[in-house]
């Protein structure tokens, strides 16, 4: 077995042991994870893998590839658990990082590639995203995989169609949207032009690749549009066009331009500190853009890919640190170049300490601290009451186009929590303790009788929840939200 193959399997073992055994330890304690997990659960329950409805009849805000993967992993059990919900993100991270090792080790020595992968994996943002039931790691796999495939295609002299890049862009688009086509094509096009490739062949091949990458997503969009109609197409426009232009009907993670200049270094912890120090010491060697053009192809490609992704995500008002996730493998390679002078002994101790701390934090400490904050206990209390009437919910802070929900309670009730629309004559309704008065002002014909109060504040609403039995004293009327 050659050295690169041995390092590959050692790396695979590290990635698996530091993620898969720990995924199901923590309950859901933020609204983001159960919001995605319940989509997969309703796919299994309803048998609708195109546009399943959940949370009182709403459709998912993101395309379904990530939810399909959760549903497939959950299929043997027949239901979604915390482990099966998080497994696709962890597997996407493992595939992306092993692919990263394969690409760089074939063009540079295996030790530097091994260092680059471990640096990337052990950054705070990548490790955290590998543990999260969110679409971001699957999108990162689509974008990074497409970029890797495009780079290998460029080494073949642009011969033939880069089918693997097309497939990965389709995966990314079916995970979150067309950004998974735009970014790989833009970064690859700029790299090829810097390498003095002719403009027209570059534009032609990348345009064709982008169009072909839309074929599979277009089939899903067509099928979903048939089911969802105008409501679906308005959601598509809002999530893709309006989000980029900052014209959404509700504020979504809006931050200023400087935001990523803080969040990127924070996401690169703990390695940003030694890398920053080494970069400062070797600043004369780093040079500027003119010197970068003389770098090895894989290093120049990494710089171009990282910069294109960073600049693109600085443009929209909507910004989250995890949006930069596709940058991290390329930044990881650049960090490895800066730190490759570390001795093997220093590397082993550094990674042993950092990875042990991350496993301890995400696999033990966070689950223990957050167990009392999860809404799992609230859902269990409600389920144990064996309610015989419909269960619905109401939140006073609804925003047009982004209705608020008790996502965690609803997941643990297996999508058994409806949403108040004023049509039910009687049943049970879940309210925040300080929303009762507002509910009665909007619905003076409804009588409430409290039957339950949560023992701790909801992890979603940050308030105590109360369950009421309700009945309508006058003919039901529809409440517009």
Strand portion: 5-15%
SS elements, strand count: 6
Q: Termini distance?
A: 64 Å
Give me the secondary-structure category.
alpha+beta
Helix content: 55-70%
Q: Biggest sheet: strands side by side, in what order?
A: 3-4-6-5
pLDDT under 50 segments (min length 5)?
476-481
Q: What is the helix tally?
A: 21
Mean pLDDT: 91
Please state the overall shape, judged from the principal axes of the Cα atoms.
globular
Largest sheet: 4 strands, mixed
Gyration radius, in Å: 25 Å
Order of helices and strands: HHEEHHHHHHHHHHHHHHHHHEHEHEE
Short account of what is shown:
The chain has 21 helices and 6 strands.
Descriptive report:
The chain is of the alpha+beta class and 481 residues long. The chain has 21 helices and six strands. The strands form two sheets. The protein has a four-stranded mixed β-sheet, with no helix packed on it. The chain has a two-stranded antiparallel sheet with strand order 1-2. It is globular and about 80 Å long. The N and C termini lie far apart (64 Å). The relative contact order is 0.11.
């Amino acid at each position: 077995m050659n050295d690169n193959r041995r390092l590959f399997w050692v790396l695979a073992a590290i990635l698996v042991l530091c993620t898969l055994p720990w995924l199901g330890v923590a309950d859901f304690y933020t609204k983001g994870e159960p919001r995605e997990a319940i989509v997969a659960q309703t796919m299994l329950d309803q048998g609708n893998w195109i546009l399943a409805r959940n949370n009182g009849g709403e459709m998912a805000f993101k395309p379904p590839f990530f939810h399909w993967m959760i549903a497939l992993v959950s299929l043997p059990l027949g239901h979604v658990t915390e482990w099966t919900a998080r497994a696709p993100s962890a597997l996407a991270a493992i595939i992306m990082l092993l692919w990263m090792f394969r690409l760089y080790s074939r063009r540079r020595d295996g030790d530097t590639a091994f260092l680059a992968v471990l640096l990337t994996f052990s950054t705070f943002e990548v490790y955290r995203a590998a543990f999260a039931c969110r679409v971001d790691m699957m999108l990162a796999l689509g974008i990074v995989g497409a970029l890797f495939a495009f780079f290998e295609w460029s080494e073949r002299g642009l011969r033939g169609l880069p089918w693997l890049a097309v497939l990965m862009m389709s995966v990314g688009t079916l995970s979150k949207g067309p950004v998974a086509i735009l970014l790989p094509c833009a970064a690859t096009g700029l790299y090829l032009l810097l390498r003095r490739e002719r403009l027209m062949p570059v534009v032609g091949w990348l345009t064709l690749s982008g169009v072909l990458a839309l074929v599979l997503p277009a089939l899903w969009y067509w099928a979903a549009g048939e089911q969802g109609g105008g409501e679906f197409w308005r959601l598509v426009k809002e999530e893709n066009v309006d989000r980029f232009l900052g014209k959404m009907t509700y504020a979504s993670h809006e931050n200023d331009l400087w935001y990523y200049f803080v969040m990127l270094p924070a996401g690169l912890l703990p390695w940003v500190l030694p890398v920053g120090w080494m970069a400062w010491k070797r600043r004369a060697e780093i040079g500027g853009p003119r010197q970068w053009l003389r770098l090895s192809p894989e290093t120049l490609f990494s710089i171009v890919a990282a910069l294109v992704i960073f600049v693109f995500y600085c443009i929209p008002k909507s910004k989250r640190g995890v949006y930069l996730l596709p940058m991290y493998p390329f930044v990881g390679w650049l960090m490895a170049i800066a730190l490759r002078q570390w001795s093997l002994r220093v590397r082993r101790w550094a990674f042993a300490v950092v990875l042990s701390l991350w496993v301890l934090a995400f696999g033990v400490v966070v689950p223990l601290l957050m167990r009392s904050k999860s809404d799992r206990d609230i859902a269990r209390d409600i389920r144990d009451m064996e309610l015989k009437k419909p269960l619905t919910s109401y939140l006073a802070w609804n925003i047009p186009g982004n209705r608020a929900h008790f996502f965690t309670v609803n997941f643990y009730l297996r999508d058994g929590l409806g949403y108040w629309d004023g049509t039910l004559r009687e049943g049970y309704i879940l309210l925040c303790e300080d929303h009762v008065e507002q509910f009665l002002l909007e619905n003076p014909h409804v009588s409430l009788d409290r039957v339950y109060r949560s023992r701790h504040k909801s992890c979603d609403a940050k308030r105590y929840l109360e369950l009421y039995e309700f009945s309508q004293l006058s003919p039901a009327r529809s409440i517009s939200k």
